[in-house]
Amino acid sequence: MYLSTLTLTEMAPHPRVISLLPSATELLCAFGAEELLVGRSHECDFPPSVLSRPCLTAARTQGKSSAEIDTEVREAVSQGAASLYTIDEARIRELAPDIILTQDLCEVCSIDLASVQRLAATLPSHPRIVSLNPKSIFDVFDDLLRVGEEVGRPALAAHAMVKLRDGYWSAMDFVNPFVPGPEVLFLEWMDPLFVGGHWTPQLIQDAGGRHSLNEAGARSRQITPEDALESMPTRVLIAPCGFDLARIRSELPALTSSRWWPLLPAVLEGNPKHILAVDGNQMFNRPGPRLVDAFRFLVGWLNDRPELIPENFPVEAI
Q1: pTM of the full predicted structure?
Q2: Which of 35, 93, 240, 254 has the most other CB atoms within 10 Å of its CB?
Q3: Does domain 13-136 have CATH number 3.90.1150.10?
């Protein structure tokens, strides 16, 4: 009854929305506003139904391995490249958006805000730009509310946010805050090594783990093998930004054959459940609704509560 009432009272506005950010697309769909989406980025692939919308961006980088992609990105930045992505300006003009969802968090992960602003200023539809920059899971909850307000569905968004927040806090009930948890090495890139930042350290800490190589809210940062060893991790989670499990598998031999890898405490312990690969592209790298699923996985993994891990969660032992 509640949702039916909301639908009747909030469905009047129908702004045309373009999302150039996968997490923003997921936020929009989380409160049932997918029909407003008229265009998407090449990375917006969830829920699968959004793939029917026109694709408006593409990556300039062509590298296949972590090292190749990293080299291309560094060269582009050093040469002052305007953006690491292309954008289909002609198609966006045809779509005449009222709202463009984008980000100002990472110019490597998605098209940069400046490029979107320059384009929007030339569009006859005079679209409103909604730029998201979350640094914590609670910022993500706020972004859900913000997107709901922007598209005229505030109550639906609030209802979805409460449900996500309940999923987060109910998982925290299984965490003992008085017992120091395991040190976690969270690899957000494999070559060179980067550890997770922004919301990731907070998720690990709230789930009962420790993440001494980076602070909550800080940017992801590059580390050395010596840094990894000195942190003495007893758990390792490999979730490279933008990589699915198949791509992780293809690069694992280079990582696990490194001279420093066998010296990690997690490897020396020999417990296969303590070194895992996760589809980071879907579960950890996007600050959207599925971060709650990622958090519940972390709580289940770090506290030996497998019943908390969402069904079909994309994870496998190394």
Answers
A1: 0.91
A2: 240
A3: no
